[in-house]
Specification:
There is one protein chain. The protein is α+β, with helices and mostly antiparallel strands. The protein has one domain: Aminopeptidase, CATH 3.40.630.70. It has eight helices and ten strands. A seven-stranded mixed beta sheet has the order 5-6-7-8-9-4-10, with helices on both faces. A three-stranded antiparallel beta sheet has the order 1-3-2. A hairpin with a 2-residue loop joins strand 6 and strand 7. The longest helix has 16 residues, at 146-161. It starts with a strand and ends with a helix.
Length: 222
């Protein structure tokens, strides 16, 4: 994995430019104030027609056990993604990342997809939107299937809005079980260049609209 330590101030504009050419930032830890750019030899992506929905997950999505909201709890989603979890004792989300992505969130280029239950945030994800590309950054769950339902809602929204690329950075066994694949850097860059040059709408379902699980499953099948 190629990486280059950043010694300059990263602005939101620099960050967006980096994403558009295949780079993304990380920190060694939450306490480390510096960032480094990552340019993997293989890149994780989700083919937008390849989300794997098991029968049990489809049942959970259809039940609307989780209320899925968009862009209502940025700080809480970041906190959830940064928190320690089984198999993940630390985090790469430092204060610089929180601040830069918050600025982009306020500009409408970072989005959160949130799973709520009983008035509490129990799972979610966040990522960056450029053209017809969405760059997934991180996700978390406090209840079983909460992050999977959030991801299903993201998939459906991207498909409905005409997106061409869903980037996952790396492929874990968990993401692979949902349909993620790894592609060589050169192939990824071709997909990326095509996607960022196109227009798509994250708000094909309008802001504030409650999208049901049935609508999500229909969009995934379309």
């Amino acid at each position: 994995m190629a990486r280059a330590r950043d010694r300059t101030e990263i602005t939101p504009e620099i960050l967006l430019r980096a994403y558009s050419i295949g780079l993304f930032p990380m920190a060694e830890s939450a306490e480390d104030p510096s960032l480094f750019w990552v340019d993997p030899e293989e890149r994780g992506i989700f083919p937008l027609d390849g989300f794997i929905v098991s029968r049990s997950l489809a049942k959970t999505i259809r039940s609307d056990r989780f209320e899925v909201r968009i862009d209502t709890a940025y700080d809480a989603v970041i906190d959830g993604c940064a928190a320690a979890a089984p198999g993940r004792e630390g985090t790469w989300i430092n204060n610089r990342i929180r601040e830069i992505y918050r600025t982009l969130f306020e500009r409408g280029q970072v989005h959160t997809v949130e799973a709520w239950a009983g008035g509490k945030l129990v799972g979610g994800l966040y990522g960056v939107s450029i053209g017809a590309a969405f760059f997934g950054e991180s996700m978390f769950h406090l209840e079983r299937d909460a992050s999977k339902v959030a991801l299903a809602h993201l998939f459906a929204r991207l498909r409905k809005g005409g997106f061409r690329l869903l980037d996952t950075q790396f492929v874990t066994s968990h993401l692979a079980s949902l349909g993620a694949i790894a592609v060589p850097k050169q192939a990824y860059h071709l997909l990326l260049a095509d996607a960022v040059s196109r227009q798509a709408s994250f708000w094909a379902w309008p802001k504030g609209m409650i999208v049901t699980g049935t609508q999500v499953l229909e969009a995934l099948k379309a």
